[in-house]
Amino acid sequence: MEQDFLPINGTDHIEFWVGNAKQSAMFYMAALGFELIAYAGPETGQRDRASYVLQQNKLRFILTSSLQPDTEIANHVYKHGDGVKVLALWVDDAEKSFKETTSRGAEAAMPPERLKDEHGEVVVSAIKTYGETIHKFVERKNYKGAFMPGYVAKKSSYPVKPIGLKYVDHCVGNVELGQMNKWVQFYEDVMGFKLLITFDDKDISTKYTALMSKVVSNGNGYVKFPINEPAAGVKKSQIEEYLDFYKGAGVQHIAIATDDIVQTVSEMRDRGIEFLYVPETYYEDLFERVGEIEEDLQPLKNMNILVDRDEEGYLLQIFTKPVQDRPTLFFEIIQRKGAKSFGKGNFKALFEAIEREQELRGNL
Asked: Which CATH class is domain 10-153?
């Protein structure tokens, strides 16, 4: 077994750059059940930005907005709208992770920095990936504080009720036509990831649109990144719509694991989260397609939850509509009952659902 030169313990956090972090934080608390755990801003010596750190189980989201018009954050939001800037990976050695990846061709985004306060130290470094997205390496074995130096612990007076979101299952990137293989190779060569699975336009197409997708995964399988690119179709694919509105490559969706998808999704629906609609016909031959499942069909049908099976078991999944005004980033909620795959059997139903939304927006 070859030595993993980039051991990763999982996703440390995901940072979104947004127009109004205070109000976005309220959305994630109210609609998705996140707790506010830390804050950085003018009161903590950050003059140019405000950041809210939200947590639910092993999920950590940071929402950051600029306090000035001419900053990297403000320009990013102006160009892309609200979106993911940082996919941070939890490592044991942020300095070594930086050296190993940059020596293999990664472009540096931030050389290793030691951040210290009374709770200990965190080491952070970063490299660039597709679009303007970066991967941060976060080493926190010597830290006991709420999040990291520069942030203060903060609780919200808003009464938060968690909805059973557990951890990041996978994060999907959309890249431009012809760029997918380049980025798959980047993950293989620079980060030592392995190609897990490939979907081509025969797997993922409707009568109108198609896309190609490859999934890369790190050694222990804790971090999985599907990479999509558009494929030739009669009309504009969802990937092209994303690229048009995001103005380039970026994170398309974040899949979050739950142990009880019916409970999680019903809670989200009650709180105003909108999901893609799948017609009733999808459920007519469900058992022929996926075999026996433990769940009752009716709640799945009521909630529009999709089911797929692979050799290892089955999974239940559902996709939100975009969570900001631009048709860019959305969330997937997934419950795995043994399945290791990504719901290939649902792609057609899913894409037709997305196309119905695209048509409403006039972008098909």
From this structure: alpha beta
